[in-house]
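Field log, afternoon session.

UNIT: design team B
ACTIVITY: writing a sequence onto a fixed backbone
BACKBONE:
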């Protein structure tokens, strides 16, 4: 190669890197978007038949709300001008690819590809709230909270680490969001479940939890597999580049660790439910798979595969052990979202220093505590405001009839209409 050819070769390489990085954001982003279908199927499978249509509607609408909110305020709050502080700027996001169109590819990727990839993450965090509060929360109160959560809560705490804020300056590490995505949604779900209260009939006079029938375990299983598949985009895309051989190797390692952490969560749940309950519990096993995924999300890039399996297994154990704990506290989490996303998210974030030599346990703990306190305060205030203004939950008669008939008038399984009417007459 002649000296004259070197600049041209460098330009081609920069453009190729720009293309591959953009491609990675887009492909991994639509894998994360596909997780919305997983949440919809998982949640609709685990709720009672009289609540399925509402769950499906909530998962569609919350994604739309999250996308619009992230466009109007979220992206700039999270990424624009944070500079070691706590918040970015207010304003509508706009793509700017003028330099790349003029031949300067130093930005590394197309602006819209980055926005798209970040947007599907905020929608994922919001999805966590839906299942935990199912079957008794009013639709418009739920949508109002999701608008608040995606407009302000998620982007502000996200700015602290991913936007170059104060946690980032301290060295806090959360590769793909065990805390910034999953625990954030988990804290919002926990505060909502406490303010909202349990479903009627969930706990008997002695405080013992009653198990309500799931509408479709096949759907819940399908949703789990969709989430497992989409999670490869969630963690793999968080490498934020595919412009070099090193990036490709890193993504391959992340895929392997992500998959095997989920396997660890499955096996832990299988063994524990057999030991504790003498029978394997499918719903716990499904949540064990998800807990393994949440657990590895904070640091999928540094463990060996064997270490990833163990990290995921601890997450699976947490789900099995924490779910009865919530019931003892009479906190009704319909689909097990709080143990999966909050407890396993905390564990995964604190586990990062076990395989990442540059991460410190105290810094990780500070990040978990700061994000948790912020989300709990703001979420609690929002839930209470909604409770005492427009109202949060259905009446006793409405809940007995079923939220699908009360709020929508359309049932996913029409044969439940008669049973719902009979339940209302008995209430």
């Amino acid at each position: 190669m002649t000296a004259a050819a070197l600049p041209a070769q460098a330009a081609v390489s920069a453009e190729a890197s720009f293309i591959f990085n953009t491609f990675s954001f887009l492909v991994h982003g639509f894998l994360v978007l596909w997780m919305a279908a997983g949440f919809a199927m998982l949640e609709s499978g685990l709720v009672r038949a009289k609540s399925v249509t509402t769950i499906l509607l909530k998962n569609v609408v919350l994604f739309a709300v999250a996308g619009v909110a992230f466009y109007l305020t979220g992206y700039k709050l999270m990424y624009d001008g944070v500079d070691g502080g706590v918040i970015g700027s207010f304003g509508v996001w706009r793509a700017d690819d003028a330099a790349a169109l003029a031949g300067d590819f130093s930005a590394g990727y197309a602006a819209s590809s980055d926005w798209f990839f970040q947007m599907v993450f905020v929608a994922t965090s919001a999805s966590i709230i839906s299942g935990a509060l199912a079957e008794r929360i009013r639709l418009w109160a739920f949508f109002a909270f999701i608008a608040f959560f995606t407009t302000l809560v998620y982007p502000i705490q996200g700015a602290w680490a991913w936007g170059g804020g104060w946690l980032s300056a301290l060295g806090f590490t959360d590769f793909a969001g065990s805390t910034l995505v999953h625990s954030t949604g988990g804290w919002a779900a926990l505060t909502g479940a406490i303010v909202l209260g349990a479903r009627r009939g969930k706990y008997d006079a002695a405080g013992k939890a009653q198990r309500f029938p799931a509408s479709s375990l096949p759907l819940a299983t399908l949703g789990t597999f969709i989430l497992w598949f989409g999670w490869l985009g969630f963690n793999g895309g968080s490498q934020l580049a595919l412009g070099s051989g090193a990036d490709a190797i890193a993504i391959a390692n992340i895929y392997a660790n992500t998959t095997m952490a989920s396997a660890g969560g499955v096996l832990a749940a299988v063994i524990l439910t057999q030991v504790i309950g003498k029978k394997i519990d499918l719903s716990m096993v499904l949540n064990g798979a998800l807990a393994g995924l949440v657990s590895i999300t904070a640091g999928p890039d540094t463990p060996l595969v064997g270490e990833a399996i163990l990290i995921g297994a601890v997450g699976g154990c947490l789900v099995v052990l924490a779910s009865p704990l919530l019931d003892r506290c009479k906190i009704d989490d319909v689909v097990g979202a709080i143990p999966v996303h909050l407890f396993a998210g905390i564990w995964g974030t604190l586990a990062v220093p076990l395989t990442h030599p540059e991460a410190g346990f105290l810094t990780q703990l500070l990040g978990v505590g700061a994000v948790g306190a912020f989300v709990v305060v703001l979420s609690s205030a929002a839930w209470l405001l909604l409770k005492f203004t427009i109202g949060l939950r259905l009446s006793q008669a409405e809940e007995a009839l079923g939220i699908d008939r009360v709020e929508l008038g359309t049932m996913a399984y029409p044969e439940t209409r008669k049973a719902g009417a009979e339940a209302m007459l008995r209430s």
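LOG NOTE: The chain has one domain: 9-83+109-197+213-390.
NEXT ACTIVITY: expression trials, pending approval
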